[in-house]
Design a protein that fits this description.
GO terms for molecular function: hydrolase activity. It comes from Alkalibaculum bacchi. This is Peptidoglycan hydrolase-like protein with peptidoglycan-binding domain. By secondary structure, the protein is mainly alpha-helical. Helices cover 52% and strands 1% of the residues. Among the domains are: 84-177, Orthogonal Bundle (Muramoyl-pentapeptide Carboxypeptidase, domain 1); 186-241, no CATH class; 254-314, Muramoyl-pentapeptide Carboxypeptidase, domain 1, CATH 1.10.101. It has helices at residues 2-34, 42-75, 110-121, 143-155, 166-174, 186-197, 211-223, 234-241, 254-265, 279-291, 302-308; strands at residues 132-133, 136-137. Strands 1-2 form a two-stranded antiparallel sheet.
Length: 319
């Protein structure tokens, strides 16, 4: 009986020792494997790259949020650019750029001419100076311009130096320009041409804002439900710029010349383009419209213009 008891105790001790040894061996084996672990192991790849990908996603989201906040701040600031241009109101297209050094008596440049035009349209110069810069009236900073600049500076409560300093340039550029009776220039002619092609002006315009132009502007404003002042206001300029133009028989201009050139290249018209939509051009347009399955109107309507803008190799030639 005693022998059996001792044997049982011995077995229990042996089982306990074997358990400890087994645990030790497993732990040793696992430890020995740690030195062999690398990113080449598939499981480690999954763990590492999954974690890395999540970190990258979080970084990208943070960067996007930062960019949005930066854009919001920029949008809330006045519109300026590194080139020296400032926010420009209106549709006056020959806008000058800001010259940090400024302009003074005796200087000549195209930029000075642009500022002289602003002073002229704003009423500070009665006419552009008689002197010329590169064949164009104006562009020379002379006494008349200096006096006009001083008058403008005084009215706008700027330092009245008579020089086109940076502050004065920025102020002039920011002014909305309107055109009225008595003024003249290529800018006025660009709006007159739109009125001419819309048939509010009968004769080809030359850039002089006369009484006939004032009447045409009023008629246009009435038709477009604008305030009928007869002045080319900002609102009227914007409306005119948005118009879709067609070219009627009897009209002329550089735009018509370009389309005549297309008709000549396709064989519908002979000779050289003259910019006049006369009877010969009208007949050529009719044939072109017939060949291209367009409504035969005899003038350059919207669909005909769209068709003629296609590349020549995609056009139907006259045979």
């Amino acid at each position: 009986m005693k022998l059996v008891k001792n044997l049982g105790t011995y077995c229990i001790i042996m089982i306990f020792i074997m358990t400890l040894t087994s645990s030790f061996l497993v732990s040793s084996e696992d430890i020995s494997k740690i030195g062999d672990i690398s990113l080449k192991e598939e499981k480690m790849k999954k763990v590492f790259y999954s974690s890395s990908s999540k970190m990258d996603e979080n970084t990208q989201v943070a960067k996007k949020e930062e960019k949005k906040e930066k854009e919001k701040k920029e949008d809330s600031q006045p519109s300026t650019s590194t080139s020296g241009e400032v926010a420009y109101e209106g549709l006056y297209e020959n806008k000058p750029t800001v010259n940090e050094a400024g302009y003074t008596l005796g200087d000549s440049s195209e930029e000075i001419l642009a500022y002289q035009k602003l002073l002229y349209y704003l009423g500070y110069l009665e006419a552009l100076p008689e002197g010329q810069y590169k064949g164009i009236p104006g562009g020379n900073f002379e006494k008349t311009t200096e006096a006009a600049v001083k008058e403008y500076q005084t009215k706008e409560k700027l330092q009245a130096t008579g020089t086109l300093d940076k502050e004065t340039q920025e102020s002039l550029i920011s002014k909305p320009i309107e055109f009225k009776v008595g003024k003249s220039g290529e800018e006025i002619q660009s709006y007159q041409l739109i009125l001419y092609y819309l048939d509010y002006i009968k004769d080809y315009p030359k850039g002089n804002f006369d009484n006939l132009t004032e009447t045409a502007v009023k008629s246009y404003q009435e038709d477009r439900k604008l305030e009928d002042t007869g002045v080319l206001t900002q609102e009227t300029q914007k409306s005119l710029k948005s118009e879709t133009l067609e070219y009627l028989a009897g009209k002329r201009g550089k735009a018509i010349m370009e389309y005549q050139d297309v008709l000549i290249n396709l064989g519908y018209l002979q000779g050289n383009p003259d910019g006049q939509l006369g009877s010969i051009s009208v007949d050529a347009i009719k044939i072109y419209q017939e060949k291209n399955d367009l409504e035969i109107t005899g003038y350059l309507d919207t669909k005909t213009l769209t068709s003629m803008k296609k590349p020549l190799d995609q056009q139907v030639k006259f045979k």
